Amino acid sequence: MRTFDTLLIANRGEIACRIIRTARDLGLRTVAVYSKADARALHVSMADEAHHIGASQAAESYLNIDAILAAAKASGAGAIHPGYGFLSENATFARAVAEAGLTFIGPSPGSIEIMGDKAIAKAHMLAAGVPCVPGYQGADRSDATLMSHAQDIGVPLMVKAAAGGGGKGMRLVTTLDDLPEALTLARSEASAAFGNDTLILERAVQNARHIEIQVFADHAGNTIALGERDCSVQRRHQKVIEEAPAPGMGQTIRKRMEKAAIAVAKSVGYVGAGTVEFLLDQNGKDFYFLEMNTRLQVEHPVTEMVTGLDLVALQLAVAQGKPLPLSQEDVTLQGHAIEVRLYAEDPTSGFLPSIGKIHQFEIDNAIRVDRGVQSGDAVSPFYDPMLAKLVAYGDTRDAALRKLIQALDNTAILGVTTNLPFLRGLLDHPEVKAGTASTTFLDNTYPNGPSKPALTSKTIALATAQLLRSESQTAQRQSLLSDTSLLGFSSDGGLPIPLDLSIDGDTHNLTATGVGTDHITVAGAGDGWSHTISTDLRIDGLRTQAHHTADDTGGLYLQTAGHHLHVTRAQPWDTTDAASTGALTAPMPGLLVALNISAGDSVTKGDTLAVLEAMKMQHQLSAPADGIVVDLHAEAGQQLTKGALILTMEDPS
């Protein structure tokens, strides 16, 4: 325990920015570290000092202990905050920080080691009498042994990485025939995320709620619980919506879970901020220990908002040897907070992560937004695709929910596909509104992922009018005329102008009348529809809501009515999508970790042909149709660019 005046944040993105804000408020000097891909990142510009620590790949930068310690020494930092993810739950890193004479903002290496391995932690909890999910966490974690024990556990079961968290290295298995593939994918994903491919098995508790208790402890052994969070709405075991307190949580079950969580923390001499995660059975009375995250959680803002505490400030105080400023009796939960995670991903394409430039990021200042990006930034393929967290607070759950819905309607992120429309739709779902969603809610509601909303004639007309106005504005800016008031003037009142518009690659044959005026009428050529769009975004006189911005090539990004669209003039040389012509291409940059077929093999639509690793996740690439593999154009272990050809197929007939 040492006092310090300079803090190095060994992380990136929104959590690095969030830590910097509190450190600055406390008068601490902040030091950022960054990879090659993050040279212009927001956290770099926010810090007082920044040090380059390596290449874009996390293994060569944010997971490089020596580089981070060298940066700490060069900057004169007295402490290191690991944030979450990366090295935050790495006991070797915590020990190296201490051996370098620096303060690690987190628990002891011993606590991290026990809780950082789910198998060891589970055995520890069973010995302490904490209820746990049945499963296997023995010393022999070979595939053969796991498959043997899976027979006894039965399905459904969970394959889980023993190390780390955040949903990485986890697979639900509903039939034992799928277990071998699940083990392979989970091992590969766990190795990439945590450098440890050890797995355990657990019986899957169906229709449960994911409830976690925030705990805090100081060096004197004082340990308190700061209420619970409900994180049941999750996809692939990564949380999507989090809230505090949990809907319908009775005081009796809350106290039982808090007591258990405090016992878990005390059993390992825990110090600092930690989260004990439980599964609450569908009967609402029985709960089971899942794991303890020995770090600050992504969803900590909802706890901050209902307790009035700054958890990062508490972390920094405890790390300097100060006692907790409150007792368990002082903890009160007031109001309700709900958080959603904004990801760069396309829910309508299997939640595939997205990359590209963020042309515009507008947020609603009526709520709390923790973000790591801003307009002009680029989303790279090297890291987790979470961009920001949007958090609303209200006196009641209904008030918080209404506030969050309004904020999402007023938020725009253009240029890269995100889950913003998906989040907005979720908040309208009856189960989410009622607060009754379980951990299987998303899988049951969207077994094949959400469908892309239909493109209506009104949306097409709006996209056309906004593109034409954007082109007119560009022309005015480039004009050498001192008076541009007559741009767009037509003595005949404006004849219909034919144009072909490309919206997300699909061509639409249209006509437009009144170009250059306050009202543009767009009609579908031969479709029998027309709509008039005014400059104040009224469609046929009715107000609509939309956000738009020009791209770098004369096109337009438009967000409206659940759509994020890219609008351009159609080009006569546009080619069709490669997948429709019997080819499998890389949907984004990544490492081709597996290629499951050979030339000449017959495949069925939906078969997993390859596995691509990108943004710390394994993505299964499926056959777009029945066919025969003609040729392979890539091999396992190869780094692919977006659109790279992996294989070609031909019709089996």
Summarize the structure in words:
It comes from Shimia sagamensis. Residues 3-447 form the Biotin carboxylation domain. Residues 575-650 form the Lipoyl-binding domain. This protein is an alpha+beta fold. The chain is built from 16 helices and 40 strands. The strands form 10 sheets. Strands 14-13-10-11-12-15-22-20 form an 8-stranded antiparallel β-sheet. A 7-stranded antiparallel β-sheet has the order 27-26-25-24-32-31-30, covered by helices on one side. A 5-stranded parallel β-sheet has the order 3-2-1-4-5. Strand 31 (556-560) and strand 32 form a beta hairpin. Helix 5 (109-116) crosses helix 6 (118-127). Mean pLDDT is 90; it is low at 573-581.
Précis, in short:
The protein has 653 residues and is α+β, with helices and mostly antiparallel strands. It is 26% helix and 31% strand. This is Geranyl-CoA carboxylase alpha subunit.
CATH architecture of the largest domain: 2-Layer Sandwich
User: Could you name the ranges where pLDDT drops below 50 across 5 or more consecutive residues?
Assistant: 573-581
Broad CATH class of the largest domain:
Alpha Beta
**How many strand elements?**
40
- Which structural class do the helices and strands define? alpha+beta
Distance linking N and C termini: 72 Å
Quote the CATH topology of the largest domain. D-amino Acid Aminotransferase, Chain A, domain 1
Question: Looking at the structure, what is the overall shape?
Answer: globular
Query: Gyration radius, to the nearest Å?
Result: 27 Å
**CATH H-level homologous superfamily name of the largest domain:** ATP-grasp fold, B domain
Number of domains: 5
Give the amount of beta strand, in percent: 25-35%
Mean pLDDT: 90
Largest sheet: 8 strands, antiparallel
Protein name: Geranyl-CoA carboxylase alpha subunit
InterPro entries: ATP-grasp, BC-like_N, Biotin_BS, Biotin_carboxylase_complex, Biotin_carboxylation_dom, Biotin_COase_C, Biotin_lipoyl, CPAse_ATP-bd
Domain Biotin carboxylation: 3-447
Domain ATP-grasp: 122-320
